[in-house]
Amino acid sequence: MISKQEKIGIFGGTFDPVHIGHLITTQFVLEQRKLDKIIFIPCYISPHKTNQNSSNPVHRLNMLRLAIEGIPYFELSDYEIRKGNISYTYDTILELKKTYHYIELIIGYDNLIVFDKWHKPDEILDLTKLIVMKRIIDKDTEVKNKYFERAIILNTPTIEISSTEIRERVKNKLPIDFLVPKKVKEYIIQNKLYE
Fold this sequence. Notes:
By secondary structure, the protein is α/β, with parallel strands linked by helices. It has eight helices and six strands, in the order βαβαβααβααββαα.
């Protein structure tokens, strides 16, 4: 049954691991865009990171579940992980359209710059509104693809945290308090991730 009323945002990524920056910026987008909820969608394999080894998808899913637990306007979809293989946003949107009428696709400014290289970008924009998170530190690009005109660019809070940095800190036995939610930190330690 299609939920006509609900305005949802979808936010995909590797989330290896999910961190506070993801949560702060998406909450900001939810408020600015007056969305009912945002669905986090961890990918199985990102088309843009096929040469990178990510953590086991189950771990990434579990960490996200812990991070958004008890937050009524955040949800989790395991669709791409259940599907397996390379995760294309277009396929995921088609699947979500069976349930939701109104979808906004939330991406970072770095993804807008290469949006013309995405799988079926025009078709994606036929189905969704494109919302771009731009931080003060994101340098404006000289060369703009045609999708810049169709994107709604939001100046989002600049949170200087990266999943790569968190993995490095764990590897080097440095604390990751305040970078990830407490339960995510405990999960990383329990499962000996990134060591």
